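Example record

The entry below shows one chain as it appears in the dataset: sequence first, then structure tokens.
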Amino acid sequence: MQNVKLVRIEYWLEKPEVGVHFMGSSLHTNNQLRRAHCWFPCVDFGLQRCCYDLEFTVDSKYVAVSNGTLLCQVITKDDPSSKTYVYCVNIPVAAEFITLAVGPFEVLPDPHNGVVSHMCMPSNLSKLQCTVSFFHTVFSYYEEYLAATFPFGSYKQVFIDSETALSSTCVGASMSIFSSQLLYDERVIDQVISTRIKLANALAQQWFGIYITAETANDGWLLDGLAGFLTDCFIKRFLGNNEARYRRYKANEAVCKVDVDGATALSLSGAAAELYGTQAIGVLGKIRSWKAVAILQMLEKQMGPESFRKILQRIVHKAEDVIRASRTLSTKEFRHLANKIGNLERPFLKEFFPRWVESCGCPVLRMGLSYNKRRNMIELAVLRGCTSNMSSKSAPARGTVSGEFQAGDDGWPGMMSVRVYELDGMYDHPSLPMAGDTCQLLEIQCHSKLAARRIQRPKKGGKGDGSDDNGEVTAALDTRMGLESPLLWLRADPEMEYLAQIQIHQPVQMWISQLEKDKDVVAQLQAIATLCSFPRLSFSIVNALNSCLIDPKVFWRVRIESAFALAKTATEADPPKRSLPAGSTTNLDLEGVQTVKSMIS
């Protein structure tokens, strides 16, 4: 190497306000939003990476924890009360991922993995042992899933006092700093899930975000999404499929509510570099992260989980190549891998990325149905819209923060599946195109046939009009017969293949049947949300919600949703509500369908 000069800078800090924080006997850094240069000289820009040799001299009763591999601890002869910690980061990283924590920490080596160490204040040691007892499983799972070893020589987790921490998590190269609020003991069960997910996500960012970085600021969404996707894989594997689907449903629901303008567009072109990372913080930053994960999960659904896993393995293996000058990933390269390894067609990808990544807005689908008894067919009326109301005429200039590509009426690529539950079973119909006309009328053939109903004779001792004293219970019976159809209930996009807001208008009894008989947590959550939104509530609705609440076989988060729904629907101040007559809801729904059908025609 020629023309290389060594520059030595002597500096000191006087009453630093940002970047490095002191409290009591501890110190820690927080480099969020280009704060690394506030405590050491550096080029504080995410695309500038280099190796580091770090030395920290502290009092001998303190432990200095920093990035990379700990080479040695030196006690100087001139000052025996001080100790110098020497660290080496031999993998180029950005300055924002250089972190430091100093305090009288207790060090807990991981008994299952010699690469991992955990540290905390002495008073929290018992909680630390309980909190990190699972960690070797997620560490091994990530290495197995990516078919690669941990990229850094060691990994350290430091839990500092909650009064000192500015945020619950601060991620650095080969090191993460957490708030002690995440610690728990064996008597606490409600914090276990949230803590494990945060620790798993911080570890996932070591691969995607720190070791492998974005080629440009415009590609940052991809690394954020890959780290979140890897975390979701951990949730599904170790916390259960129900927990994973519940969290994904809630995240998608939040994204659809907020994704209304260009602030949530993932690709901001030239504006991304000018924002200096501010787009990744706050509520909108969380929404952008959830949206990025949802988009990657949509691609996984299209190509299959094994193909998507091979893409991630290819990315990591390319990063391990010592010949490569840098370990970066771009949206263009990922799109090429989706075509080459995922076998997704180029026309689909050419339409997918601009529509989902470079624009704002999510699909909004309003559906109504009716049953054609003569043809044994379901007529499904669909009205498609968008959560964003921005038009190309009123949109800001291209490349600004407020908008890049605008939401229009062109739709989205692909077909949405409609799942019909009939008397004879469940049938999927991938028949709903997400592009084209905004108003559509679909005809779905039923497989089941409705048997002829027998005329029910009045019971002996009953009233002359055929009724009996159990009228309220009779009114709450299966109103599906009012439809005179073999249809039990209907769902759109049951596998969450789309990031969409779906509103289905179907009779109350269908929602009750979906809540009681469908074992999918997403179906149960959709049914609960719809049932508690009806303006008039029958006894059958309250009874269904209560049955869900007290059923121990139902997923516990769904039972909590049922409890909140009951609290909304039944209060002492509400007047008594009578049960709706059987079939009345069906008539209301049919009127709504006729309105939508008239709009289409």
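Notes for this example: The two ends are 74 Å apart (CA to CA). The chain has a mean pLDDT of 85.
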